[in-house]
Amino acid sequence: MDSDSWPELMGRAQAGDAAAYRRFLSEVLPFLRIVIGRTGIPFDQIEDVAQETLISLHAIRHTYDTARPIKPWLVAVARRRAVDWRRRRNSANRYETPLDDTAHETFADPLANRDKEKSEAAASIRRWLAELPAGQRQAVELLKLRELSLNEAAAVSGQSVGALKVATHRALASLRKIWKREEEQDR
To answer: How confident is the model over 24-45, as a mean pLDDT?
Structure first.
């Protein structure tokens, strides 16, 4: 790992030398892994953050000034990617609640409970779909339940692709309102 050649390699890469760019990336990758590891990223996630860092470097490679030291620039980019990874991770964890497998069972047999939940959910969905106007209901049934492509659904329904998109968007918005209304009634 000859970090003294990195500024020159990056300068050549900025000028369009693909071989220099490949060499630069392969030489800086171990350095980036070390920097990312020192930020406290779990070992099994270091490679993911390193790859995100390489993508960022590619996107901003034109901003590097070859007259300046390259390591601080690389460290700054790697640390920012690590911070972004933590933010995404913390954001995802904020909305997740760990539950054990038996937390919501109503029957002794977990499979029986799943079947009951599926049938209750299916009944709710059928009831909610019945409240939608015919065009919106048909759009949801074709695109979301039968999983047809837009072109296939347009051929079956006789509507344009654009009309199906609008109907589906409106239907999903209506379904959200119906669901919230029922959720409030259950409280």
So the answer is: 93
Q: Is 70 in contact with 10 (CB distance < 8 Å)?
A: yes
Alpha-carbon distance values, 63 to 109, 176, 185 (Å): 61, 45, 56
Q: Which of the four pLDDT bands, split at 50, 70 and 90, describes residue 109? A: low
Can you tell me which residue has the tokens 């599926």?
118
Can you give the pLDDT at residue 49? 94
Query: What is the arithmetic mean of pLDDT over 67-82?
Result: 94
DSSP per residue over 141-166, as a string? IIIIIS---HHHHHHHH---HHHHHH
Q: Hunting for tokens 């995404």 — which residue is that?
A: 88
Indicate the SS3 state at residue 136: helix
Please report how the helices 110-130 and 161-186 are oriented relative to each other, as an axis angle in degrees rounded to 10.
120
What's the CA gap between 120 and 115, in Å, rounded? 9
- List all residues 6 or more positions away from 134 whose beta carbon is below 8 Å from its beta carbon: none
- DSSP E strands in the chain: the ranges are none
Residues, the chain:
187
